[in-house]
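Retro notes (design track)

What went well: tokenization of the new backbones is finally stable.
What didn't: we kept losing track of which sequence belonged to which structure.
Fix going forward: every design gets posted as structure first, then sequence, in one message. First example under the new rule, 157 residues:
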């Protein structure tokens, strides 16, 4: 597999769809619970990668979904990613690999993800972070809504 440098805004653009006015009716779609990491205000979700339950940051600034090398890396030896600049941003060396991804009832078999060393991200957030949910998956939906009142991510096809 080819390695390449991957850049992620890591929540540099907090959310692409955010309505300041409550709608009369909540959107219908697949609902997935999330946890708001209060000190740093990032949305965390539980996903399965090849059947293993993992914690992901919902990163609307990431073009592609990233999975930590400890989950998919096998014998990979990648340098740690690093935060860049004054904005929240992540830069690192990545290798593309297929993975079976599950988010609630949604499935993406053999989806190509960027495998990176996210040790620095875990240190920054002071908790286990197994990956970043990127735009490659979110763009499969017509609408993505963060319902903070119910702590649900609503994905409408």
């Amino acid at each position: 597999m080819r390695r390449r440098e991957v850049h992620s805004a890591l929540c540099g653009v907090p959310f692409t769809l955010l309505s300041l006015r409550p709608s009369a009716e909540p959107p219908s779609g697949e609902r997935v619970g999330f946890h708001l990491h209060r000190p740093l205000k990032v949305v965390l979700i539980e996903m399965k990668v090849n059947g293993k339950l993992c914690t992901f940051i919902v990163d609307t600034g990431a073009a592609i979904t990233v999975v930590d090398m400890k989950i998919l890396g096998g014998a990979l030896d990648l340098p740690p990613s690093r935060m860049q600049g004054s904005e929240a941003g992540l830069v690192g060396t990545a290798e593309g690999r297929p993975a079976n991804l599950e988010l609630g009832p949604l499935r993406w078999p053999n989806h190509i993800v960027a495998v990176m060393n996210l040790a620095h991200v875990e240190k920054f957030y002071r908790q286990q972070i197994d990956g970043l949910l990127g735009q490659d998956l979110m763009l499969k939906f017509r609408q993505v809504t963060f319902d903070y009142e119910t702590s649900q991510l609503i994905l409408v096809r």
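Added context from the reviewer: The chain is about 10% helix and 45% strand.
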